[in-house]
Predict the 3D structure of the following.
Amino acid sequence: MNKFRHSFSNPVWAGLLLALCTFVTIVVISACSSNHAAALPPLGPQEVDFPADADFINVRDYGATGNGTDDDTEAIRSAIQENLNQHKTLFFPSGTYLVSDSLEWKDEEDVFYAFSTFQGEGTARTIIQLQDRAAGFADPENPKPITRPGSIESREDGSGNRAHSNYIFDMTFDTGKGNSGAIGVDFTANNTGAMENVLIRSGDGQGTVGLNLTRDVGPCLIKNVTVQGFDIGILSTSALHGITLEDIQLENQNIVGLKNLDNVLAIRKLTSINTVPAIINGGEQRWRGPIVVVDSELLGGSPRTAAIRNTSEIFVRNVRVDGYSAAIQNGEAQIASPIVEEFTSSSPISLFEASSRKSLNLTVEETPVFVDNDLSHWANVEAYGATRNDDVDDSQAIQEAIDAGKSTVYFPQGTYKIGTPVVVRGEVKRIIGFHSRFSPTDILFQFQNENHPVILERFNFFNEGSLERQTSQPIVVRHAIKPALKGSAPGSWFIENAVAQPIVLTEGQNLYAHQLNCELPPPEPMVSNEGGVFWVLGYKTEFGNTVAATSNDGKTEILGGLFYPSQGVKDPTIPLLINQNSSVSATYREIAFGPTYTVHIEETQQGETKILTRESMGTGEMIPVTLYAGRR
C-alpha cells in the first residue's frame, strides 16, 4: 500500500488520476440515466432454502438435470403432468434448467389445469432458460412463452376464470438470445394466485413480452418481480378481474414498460428505468379503467415522450418522474411536474361540499417479512406426532411444534385436524403450509405472540376455522383461501393474496390488504370497519353486497377495486359503499351483466344522509369511479 501511495504522490500522476476518476464518474452517471442503465438488483430474497421433508415434487426425480447443458423440457413436462390440480409444489433445486419448448401446465391428455406451484431456491440460484435460437420462438407475430399456467375447463390457450391457486416463487426465467418471438411468462391466476420474487429477463433485450397477463387474469398478486428487456415489459388486457402489482421493476424495454388495455390494475412501488413510456393505459371506451399508480418512480425517460400515456381512467399519487417530457399525457392534456402528488383523469366525487376532494392518502404499514434459511430452526409438525389425512386430532402435536423454540413451523401438504385451538406464542415467527388445509373446527389458532409479528402462509382454510387475535403484535396472512379473522384486541392485520370471509374491524384495529377477494352474500357487509383502519390495494368482490361499511370515525381507503355482482343484486336498497360519520376514499370499477347496484354510495355526516345512485353516474355495463372522497 505504501508503494502505491508513493507512486501517485507526483502532482502529474495525481492530476491524471483525478481526471481519470472524473471521466469514469461521468460515464457511470451517464450510463445510469440512459436506457441501458445498469440493472437494478432483483427484489426479494436471492436465496431461499426448504427442508427435504416438506413433501415437494422434485423435478430432478423426473430426470431434470439443471446443469445448463442438457434439455430438461420433457422431464419438467412429466413432473407437471403428473401433479397438476392437486395443490402440489414442483420444486426446482438450484441450477439452470435448459428448455427448448414451452412448459404448459397440461396433463397427459393435453388439457390445462390449475392448483399448482413452481418453487425455486431464489432468483440467483434457480433459472429456467430458453435455448438460444429455439425452434418456434423467432416470430413476434406468433409469440410463445417459456411457461404458461392454465385454468380448469379452459379454452385452447388455457384462458378462463378458474385458474385458481397458480403460483410461481423464487426463480428466474431467461429467454436466451435469438428468440425475438419469446414471452417470458404467460401467467394466469384467479381469486388466489401469485408470482413472487421472480426475475424475467431477455438475454439480448429482444422478445415480445416479459410478463403476459392477457388470459382472463385476476384477481392475483404480482409482487417483487423484475422484467429486463423485451418490447413490452408487462402486458395486461381483459375487463375482468383486477390485478395487484407491487414492488415491480421494469428495465430497458423497447416499446413500453407496462401496457394495460381495459383491466383494473392496482400498482404500488413500481420502478421503471426506460427511455420509452413507463405506462400506457387505454382500451375500449366501454371498459374504461381505472388503474391506480402510487408510490412509484419512473426514471431515465426520453424528452420525446411522457412517462404515463393515458386514454382511459387513471389515479396517480406520489409518483416521481425523471427525464420525460411530462409525467402524464392524459388525452391532449399534459401534467409536466416531476412529482405527481395526486392526479385523477376524471373529476373526483364528493357528496358533501365541505369534504376534501382528495384521497385519504393513509400511512401504510408495510407487511412484515421473515425468512430463515437455517433449516435447524424449522419444525415439521409431523416430527411431533401430527399425521396428515387421517382425521385424528393433531392439536397437541402442532402445539408441541409451536412450543419447540423454532422460528419456522411447517406443514407438509395435506389435511390436518385441529380439535382444540393452537396457541401461537414463543419464538415462532412463520407458519407455512405449502397449501395444506384443516378439517372443520371453530378456532384454529389463537395468536398470543408478545414480541414480534407472526406470518401464516400457504393454507387453505375453506371456511373451516378462524384465526383469533389475542395480541397487539402484527399478524400476517398470505396466500390463503378463506381465513376468518376474529378477536377484538387492537393491532394490525396484514393480508396478501387471500379469499376472505366477512371481516370486522373495531377501534384500534388496522387491516392492510394487498390483493383481497371477497365473494360473500348479504346481509353482513364484506368488510365492516367500525372505527379502525382499512387500507386495500386491489380489491375484487362478487355477490350483490356492500363491499365496505365504515362507521364510528373509521378510515377506509380502496385503491383499485373491481366490484362484480355476477350473481345479481337482489336487494336494491343495498349500497355498494357505506360511509357513516367516517372518512372513505375509493378508486374502483363496478361492472355487471345483470341486476346491479341501485346505490353506489350512502354517506352520512352529522345526521345528514346523501346517496349517489348508479343512474346518476351513467349507463352501460360498467361504471368507473376514479376517486370518491368523503371525510368526516
User: Anything to note?
Assistant: Residues 1-38 have pLDDT under 50 and may be disordered.
